[in-house]
Amino acid sequence: MAGNRKTIGILTGGGDCPGINAVIRAVAKAAMNDHNWRIVGFRDGYAGLVMRESVVLTNQSVSNILSVGGTILGTSNKADPLKWAEWLDGKLTFFDKSKDVLAYCDELELSALVCVGGDGTLSIANRLLDKGLPVVGIPKTIDNDLSGTDITFGHDSAVATAVDAIDKLHTTAQSHHRVMVVEVMGRYAGWLALCSGLAGGGDIILIPEIPYDIEKVCRTVVDRAGRGKLFSIVVVAEGAEPIGGEKVVQQMIADSPDPIRLGGIGKIVGNKIEQMTGVETRVTILGHVQRGGSPTAFDRILATKYGVGAVELIEKKQFGQMVCLRGNDIQSVPIAEAVGKLKLVPTDSELMATARSVGTEFGDS
Ligand code: F6P
């Protein structure tokens, strides 16, 4: 099979996002060009490890994918080899498949596995490390809520998509003297709402870290109108919640390790604003549009640096580590330090202070 060549593996788990293919390409090229290693990709995240579905990656298979969104390997935000879900007699039953996974990796003569993902994917990677699988991690998520790194790849591209949408919504807001509410992703962390709101000139930004007072939100809309600003742009994270209220759950996915899917808070905020201020209001939910499309130049470069960095970690046998960005430098951090505690927006951060200085309302003051 592998002959004398060392073999490494790669899988992409969790939600897709722009830049994953750039990571796969960088890992494969660095492995092949710098070390003459063989590389296999597992299909659909951890499902491929359990279902024994893998493919050898070649220079040809990773060619022309740098700018392409999604993942050529497929992904899953349900598959967990340590808690493998199967429906038996109409009942959801869970199995530990870690022994089968280790046996499959032995058969493939795998020296290391690169796991590309967010908190869920990397938590599983860390548990597989404990079972004896040599893993390294690469931080991915549009939410940018993974600890241990300044930024995850995919976030910048999602921000760019949201800013483009906000810019377009601005014209209708201005022309029709309306409030335009735009709901962006971000379950627990408001990075996407804050960054796109700041870059898109959002007048009101509602993030999960700051429960909002709807009276305050409406007062801002009315005050702006009083100053001749007859429109307002409201950017709402899907995980935002009113003071004393709760997140809006859209769906529960029974066989997912993280079953809650949010959505709909934008509509609630929009309805309240229209009722309480009398200003005509429209709501746009961006949803999975934010996860699609071509990565930004920033994400292509970051993803490439992360991929090459992960191969260097394997070369140095630094298993259990995740590549990360600190300032301008690619470094690494134990995966155990990155998972289990989400990186929320610090409410006393410079970014928040900057937004407040230009008059952004967060519904709290
Ligand atoms: O974690 C990434 C993310 O896009 C969240 O922002 C969002 O809440 C969730 O995934 C949506 O998941 P799904 O693709 O299962 O609907």
TrEMBL record:
Gene Ontology biological process terms from the UniProt entry: canonical glycolysis; fructose 1,6-bisphosphate metabolic process; fructose 6-phosphate metabolic process
Binding site for ATP: 15, 78-79, 118-121
Site, Important for substrate specificity: residue positions: 120
Protein name: ATP-dependent 6-phosphofructokinase
UniProt catalytic activity: beta-D-fructose 6-phosphate + ATP = beta-D-fructose 1,6-bisphosphate + ADP + H(+)
Residue positions of the active site: 143
Gene3D superfamilies: 3.40.50.450, Phosphofructokinase domain
Name of the top EC class for this enzyme: transferase
Annotated compartments: Cytoplasm
Assigned GO CC terms: 6-phosphofructokinase complex
Residues binding Mg(2+): 119
Membership in a protein family: Belongs to the phosphofructokinase type A (PFKA) family. Mixed-substrate PFK group III subfamily.
Keyword Ribonucleoprotein set for record: no
Keywords, sorted A to Z: ATP-binding, Cytoplasm, Glycolysis, Kinase, Magnesium, Metal-binding, Nucleotide-binding, Transferase
Residue ranges crossing the lipid bilayer per the database entry: none
Top-level taxon: Bacteria
Source species taxonomy: Bacteria, Pseudomonadati, Candidatus Hydrogenedentota, Candidatus Abyssobacteria
Required cofactor names: Mg(2+)
Domain called Phosphofructokinase: residue spans: 8-314
Keyword hit for Transferase: yes
Enzyme Commission no: 2.7.1.11
